[in-house]
Amino acid sequence: MRQPPHLALRVRRATIRLIDRARGSLAPWIFEALYGSFALCYDRISKFFFAGQWSVWQRTALDHLEGGRVLELGYGTGDLALEMCSRGYEVMGVDSSPRMHRIARVKLWRGGCQGTLLIGSSAALPLSDGSVDAVVSTFPSSYILSEETWTEAWRVLRIGGSFVIVLSGHLLAVDHRSKLLIRFHSLIYGEQRPTAHLDWSVTPGFDLRFERHANAQGVADLLIARKLV
Ligand SMILES: C[S@@+](CC[C@H](N)C(=O)[O-])C[C@H]1O[C@@H](n2cnc3c(N)ncnc32)[C@H](O)[C@@H]1O
Questions:
Q1: Is the pLDDT at 192 greater than 60, yes or no?
Q2: What string of H, E and C letters represents the secondary structure of 2-58?
Q3: Are 143 and 122 in contact (CB under 8 A)?
Q4: pLDDT tens-digit map of 98-130
Q5: Cβ distance 228 to 204 under 8 Å?
Q6: 51-65, 102-116, 150-164, 179-193: least confident range
Q7: Model confidence band, residue 219 (pLDDT cutoffs 50, 70, 90)
């Protein structure tokens, strides 16, 4: 006969359910606040909570860029846009947050860069068909799950151009600090990142390839989607 689960196990399951529910309602709020009212803290928070790996993971996208004209979706505070500019790319960017836009524009201006950063949506890109060599997006929020984003990325890319996405990054448990941070991440994100729910059928017209970039401290997972026709 099956025994009812031990009390400690039932308490553990109930606690996990509670944390899941809290995460479900809190996480979107935390992220929206980070792109809005707390945008000024975004750089410091991402640097601290990912042990300095955030910018390393962002830059993994650069290994997969071909051609000179790049569109960045969700450029955030503009770190990658600035890096691409300083490497000689012609950079355009679209981000929906006016606060992120302000921070990124100042960053590019201080860095002496000429990039064009706009406030807008990945679902309606203000660019003509086939006008860019690459579209790049690092740590995208739920916009990357939408069919409109993929339709627009396909439209603005030239044939053979790539949509390069840094889907996620995770720290390796190499010391006390990283172990603590990993625990914190699983509390915030749960076991799966939002992009784990991407329905690949929203990406017709692309050839998909997954890549993993690793160093001693962490791992970044990328998706490179090449426009076929
Ligand atoms: C997690 S942040 C990533 C920012 C930056 N790429 C990075 O690596 O730190 C997601 C960014 O996407 C922007 N965003 C959200 N929805 C968007 C959409 N539909 N179109 C364009 N940008 C969007 C947010 O304002 C935010 O700046």
A1: no
A2: CCCCCHHHHHHHHHHHHHHHHHHHHHHHHHHHHHCCCHHHHHHHHHHHCCCCHHHHH
A3: yes
A4: 999 999 999 999 999 989 999 999 999 999 999
A5: no
A6: 179-193
A7: very high
Report which secondary-structure segment, H or E, holds 138. Answer: strand 132-138
In degrees, to the nearest 5, what angle opens at C-alpha 182 toward C-alphas 210 and 178? 105
What is the distance in A from the centroid of ligand 1 to the CA of 35?
A: 8
C-alpha 74 to ligand 1 mean position (Å): 3
What is the chain's mean pLDDT, rounded?
A: 88
Checking if the pLDDT of 177 tops 80, the result is: yes
The best mutation among 95, 146, 149, 168 to test binding of ligand 1, ranked by most ligand atoms within 8 Å of the C-beta, falls on 95
Residues with CB under 6 A from ligand 1: 35, 46, 58, 73-76, 94-97, 100, 121-123, 138-139, 141, 143
Gap from CA of 156 to ligand 1 centroid (Å): 18
CB 225 within 8 A of CB 208: yes
Q: Which pLDDT tens digit goes with each residue over 10-59?
A: 766 766 666 566 656 666 777 777 777 778 889 999 999 999 999 999 99
Backbone dihedral region for residue 175 (phi beyond 0: left; psi -120 to 50: alpha; all else: beta): beta
Atom of ligand 1 nearest to the CA of 140: 10
Cα 32 to middle of ligand 1, angstroms: 10
Distance 94 CA to ligand 1 centre (A): 9
Please give the single-letter amino acid code of residue 198.
L
